[in-house]
Design a protein that fits this description.
The chain is an alpha+beta fold. The chain has helices at about 170, 200-205, 215-225, 240-250, 250-260, 260-285, 295-305, 320-335, and strands at about 15, 25, 35, 60-65, 70, 75-80, 90, 100-105, 110-115, 120-125, 140-145, 155-160, 160-165, 175-180, 190, 205-210.
Length: about 325
């Protein structure tokens, strides 16, 4: 949907009042769009689960608890909420979510998140991480107050990275909208094993977005061998990977539900299987897997580690609160 940014209403509130405060103060005419989250998070790439590498590199990707991810370009806008007349529905039966929660607007200088609700504040939770680096503290979220009668809506500007957006209840129940901007995220790039010469274009073409479910499945599959270089510990099976994922991001209650509910358990197993199949196709397309013989998960894991697609540095992500929050949001939504 095309828009004219100059025609949009201008929020009256601006930058956060001090680092990490989440409070907004009035701004002058030079800051018409509201709160700015400066350097809110590291750049991230926008490769989605199941998406082709490099597809829509300049797209802003928005995903919610229902339906497929949406890709937005400059001039696009998207309204999310309980509905019915919204672009991204969050579930019609939840009366604790506003009919129109917020709006996402893609403009030249970034992505604006606007609170449309007259009842609930809108929370924008961002973070950063780099595999192998010490885990930073979780950033204080920016809070956009509920819209008061006769007042313009509060907004914030995102310029890079990713964020979870929603009411406090949506974030707590892992039903937040996940917003991902284009850019160079600390991604996972395959390199040749030692002794094979320089990096080749076929091998270097494999990347995984650390915020995707595919990345988490690959990481959980490889965890035993990343922790023990002897490669003697057994790898988790497809039915075991899903509950391990949930437990590793703090969703112990959901993991117990999955183990006790055959239908949920099967749904999760199929999700894991689909991600492993997609990963195997990526490796096959770049001739990294054996040409003959069966290709099981042990072969996939050894290939991932041998080509340094994943390494011990990625185990540090399990200490990063923002990364775990994003992953928990992704997995909880795929089981709804």
């Amino acid at each position: 949907m095309e828009i004219n940014a100059e025609a949009l209403p201008r929020p009256a509130f601006g930058v956060p009042d001090g680092p990490g405060s989440g409070m907004l103060v009035p701004t002058g005419p030079d800051e018409p769009w509201g709160a700015t989250v400066d350097d809110a998070f590291d750049d991230v790439d926008v490769d989605l689960d199941g998406a082709d590498d490099g597809a829509d590199d300049d797209a802003v990707v928005v995903s919610g608890p229902l339906g497929p991810p949406r890709r937005l370009g400059p001039g696009d806008r998207l309204v999310f909420g309980r509905g019915p007349d919204v672009d991204l529905p969050l579930g019609p039966d939840d009366r604790w979510i506003s009919r129109r929660v917020g709006e996402i607007i893609v403009a030249v200088d970034g992505v604006r998140v606007v609170n449309l609700s007259r009842k609930y504040a809108l929370v924008v939770q961002s973070g950063d991480y780099a595999p192998g680096a010490a885990a930073p503290a979780l950033r204080e979220p920016v809070t956009l107050r509920a819209r008061m009668p006769q007042d313009p809506a509060e907004a914030c500007l995102l310029t890079a990275g990713s964020a979870l957006v929603g009411s406090a209840l949506m974030l707590r129940e892992r039903r937040a909208v996940h917003l991902r901007l284009p850019g160079a995220m600390p991604d996972v790039t395959a390199v040749p094993p030692a002794g094979t010469g320089g990096k080749t274009s076929t091998v270097a073409g494999i990347t995984m977005n650390p915020e995707s479910r595919e990345f988490m499945v690959a990481l959980q599959l490889c965890v035993p061998w990343l922790r023990d270089s002897a490669w003697v510990d057994p790898l988790p099976s497809e039915p075991e990977i899903g509950p391990l994922v949930l437990e590793s991001v703090g969703e112990d209650y959901l993991a117990r539900r999955v183990r006790a509910d055959p239908q949920l358990r099967e749904r999760l197993r199929r999700k894991v299987r689909d991600h492993l199949k997609a990963l195997r196709k990526k490796l096959e397309a770049r001739a990294l897997l054996p040409a003959e013989g069966p290709v099981g998960n042990t072969v996939i894991a050894s290939t991932i580690i041998r080509h340094d697609i994943l390494g011990r540095r990625h185990l540090d992500l399990f200490e990063n609160d923002y990364w775990k929050q994003v992953q928990a949001n992704q997995w909880a939504q795929c089981l709804e």
